[in-house]
Amino acid sequence: MKKDDIVVVVPTYNNPLTINAVANDVLSHGYRLIIVDDGSEMSVSSLVSEHDTLTILRHEVNQGKGEAIITGAREAQRLGFSYFISLDGDGQHLASQIEKICDACDGADQIIIGARNFEINHVPNGSKFGRWFSNFWACWDTEQTITDSLSGFRLYPTSILDLIIKTKRFDWEMEVLVKHAWKGRLIKEVSIECYYPTPEERVSHFKKFWDTAAIVMVHVKLLPWKFFLKKRYQ
After folding, report:
1. In sequence order, which residues have a C-beta less than 8 Å from that of residue 170 and are 6 or more positions away?
2. CA–CA separation, 144 and 188 (whole Å)
3. Contact in structure between 104 and 112 (CB atoms under 8 Å)
4. What are phi and psi of 66, to 5 degrees?
5. pTM of model > 0.85
6. Under a CB-based contact definition with an 8 Å cutoff, are residues 36 and 9 in contact?
7. Which residues form the domain of 35?
8. What pLDDT score does 137 carry?
9. Residue 193's CB: how many other CB atoms inside 10 A?
10. Measured between alpha carbons, how far is 36 from 152 in angstroms, rounded to an integer?
11. Which portions of the chain are predicted below pLDDT 70?
């Protein structure tokens, strides 16, 4: 897959210290970029310099990461793209790693996850456990091998817009994997490097208890459909 075949979508909410650097990183690697400002207190338009290949969309009210990705997916489809890369606006994901994910795409209707290396310093044990717990249920529901179900660095086909997904926030990233797999579509992973900030630098809008509980509820709600009516559910 060539650079011209994809567009990068960055959903962001209150990342004023990092979003300009993220945008410059993506643009410097020659990718077209869509930033979806999900109701940030300081608008992204005031933080990021204009560029010919940059589009900034804004939700006036925060709607959740999943809804921001959907907004970006719709714009990608409108621009004529069949695939887009989603990465976060906090600086953890590196544009240099996009090529690895694109190289793994063979043209099939697939999601490709950029699987992070968690065997490095600064990664809290709680994060490692959360990833293991999420991976267990992701593998169970999708019947595919997934080692980093919580990674937001992914290649998506715009066909995800055809899926019936009821979540809108961080739990959306789990539900889209399950619903995509239930359509008989493939999920792949590629090992990528990322920047994992120290505790002093880290800015996260992921609420460990409530957002983890929401992800668990995705699996609880979908479990009966997995065995009985999952095709009809679509």
Report:
1. 64, 65, 66, 206, 211, 214, 215
2. 9
3. yes
4. -60, -45
5. no
6. yes
7. 3-233
8. 78
9. 14
10. 14
11. 118-131, 196-234
Q: What is the pLDDT of residue 130?
A: 61
Q: What is the pLDDT of residue 218?
A: 62
pLDDT of residue 101: 96
Q: Amino acid identity, residue 9? A: V
> HSE (CB half, 13 Å, CA atoms) of 28?
10
Q: Which two tokens stand for residue 14?
A: 């209150």
CA distance 87 to 150: 12
Residues 6+ apart with CB under 8 A from 182: 142, 226, 230, 231, 233, 234
Give the count of domains, the chain. 1
Instruction: Report the pLDDT value the prediction gives residue 224, as an integer from 0 to 100.
Output: 57
Predicted pLDDT at 125: 47
- CATH number of the domain residue 54 falls in: 3.90.550.10
Q: What is the reported pLDDT for 197?
A: 62
Please name which of 166, 159, 146, 144 lies closest in space to residue 110, comparing C-alpha atoms. 159
- Provide the residue type at 182 as one letter: W
Would you state the pLDDT for residue 233? Answer: 46
If 0-12 CB within 10 Å is exposed, 13-18 middle and 19+ buried, where does residue 72 land?
Answer: buried
The Cα–Cα gap between 89 and 164 comes to: 26
